[in-house]
Amino acid sequence: xxxxxxxxxxxxxxxxxxxxxxxxxxxxxxxxxxxxxxxxxxxxxxxxxxxxxxxxxxxxxxxxxxxxxxxxxxxxxxxxxxxxxxxxxxxxxxxxxxxxxxxxxxxxxxxxxxxxxxxxxxxxxxxxxxxxxxxx
Length: 136
Fold this sequence. Notes:
There is one protein chain. The strands form three sheets. The chain has a five-stranded antiparallel sheet with strand order 1-6-5-9-2, with no helix packed on it. Strands 4, 7, 10 and 11 form a four-stranded antiparallel sheet that branches. The chain has 136 residues and is mainly beta. The chain has strands at residues 2-3, 13-16, 24-28, 31-38, 43-52, 57-68, 77-82, 86-90, 95-101, 117-120, 128-130, 133-135. A hairpin with a 4-residue loop joins strand 5 (43-52) and strand 6. The chain contains no helices and twelve strands. 21% of the residues are buried. The mean pLDDT is 92. The chain is globular and about 45 Å long.
């Protein structure tokens, strides 16, 4: 569980859908495509997909880590990340939120001290999240 409104936006990137009028079924593999600019040659990010209820509390639907090495600091690169496949029912009135962070106690991280990641969506390579949904 995570309180999505209280996540510090300086330390975590957050994207949210609108509230769904009807219940939705997540079936399969959610995908994230974004552009990352690192300040160091290696790093780790973890993407989380949450079901967010009316009070802003998010229940984890799926997640996945992504680690890179040998990148040029300051040079942007594209990231394609498939989250773990899942079957999850999102109730009507809820929304989905994608959160990207750099630290998770469940994964070994490769973020050097002081490293920062910047996320962007260039016009020639826009970022997106693809979630396999169908109405119940």
